[in-house]
Amino acid sequence: MDTSVKGIVLKTKDYKDNDKLLTILTLEKGKILVKARGVKKAKSKFKAFCQSFCFAEFELVSSNGGYILTGVNEVENFYDLTTDISRFSYAFCVLELVDKVCYENQEYLNIFIDMLKCLKQMKMNEVNVELTLCKFILNILSFEGFKINLNECSNCGDKLNNNLFFNMSRGEITCEKCRALDDIVLENAIYSSLKILYSNSYDNLKTIKFSKKILNNLLKFLTNNIYFRYEIKLKSLIL
Predict the structure, then answer these.
(1) Which one of 77, 99, 118 terminates a domain?
(2) Strand partners of residue 63
(3) What percent of the residues of the chain are helix, what percent strand, and what percent coil, each to the nearest 5?
(4) Do the domain assignments include residue 237?
């Protein structure tokens, strides 16, 4: 055994006749690509663990600048999320976003821990998965240096009140007097929802109740923000 890492499988890809390529976000090495040899064979002992949402300790050997899987010890799985199409869509968005934001062989400790917390919450039936995804997107933006300033106008610095506007290309809120031509109206309900999500942890989400309309508008706002930051469209998201 060359190295052992704890990670979550973000996605898999068929490779040759019986192999798979696993994209894994790990605690120790960030995002890595791992070749799972023979895993498509019926008798492969690793078959059940080479799936998206598997959280495991992976034993690896280095090969030609990459890694080959030699052993797996499952820590936890989130396969239950795949049995409900709605929960699956939102949970898969988490994996999809992490895969597209993170670069290979760079450490992303905060994102790894937050992804794990998010998926654990999404497994709980009493938690709204749409709200949980909104919280995750906000956290990703914060980790990447795009936290939205909800306290003051990005231009003049005045305290924010009513009649607010948002610039998608800059990710900033402005007051009415500083509004630019390409700014959009920021609904008061969205602004209030953002403040609530920023000030609450995943554990508190089950106590937060937003209407379906507000949740949909909030998620659209955040996914549009992601698109302007990274040109990423979450294909698995069903709105």
Answers:
(1) 77
(2) 66
(3) 40, 25, 35
(4) no
Q: State how far Cα 76 lies from the chain centre.
A: 18
Degrees to nearest 5, angle at CA 155 with 153 and 158: 40
Residue 2: CB atoms within 10 Å: 11
For CA atoms 46, 110, 188, 132, the dihedral sign is positive
The whole domain housing 36 covers 3-77
Distance CA 153, CA 174 (A): 5
- Residue 217's nearest CA partner among 200, 192, 198 is 192
Owner of token pair 């492969």? 44
pLDDT, one tens digit per residue, over 33-66 is 999 998 888 888 888 889 999 999 999 999 887 8
The pTM for the full model equals: 0.92
Q: What is the mean pLDDT of residues 208-217?
A: 93
Count of other CB atoms within 10 angstroms of residue 239? 9
Residue 101: alpha-carbon gap to chain centroid: 9
Q: Are residues 135 and 57 located together in one domain of the fold? A: no
Pairing status of strand 30-36 against strand 66-77: parallel
What distance in Å separates the CA atoms of residue 129 and residue 226, rounded to the nearest whole number? 18
Q: Which residues pair with 20 in a beta bridge?
A: 14, 36
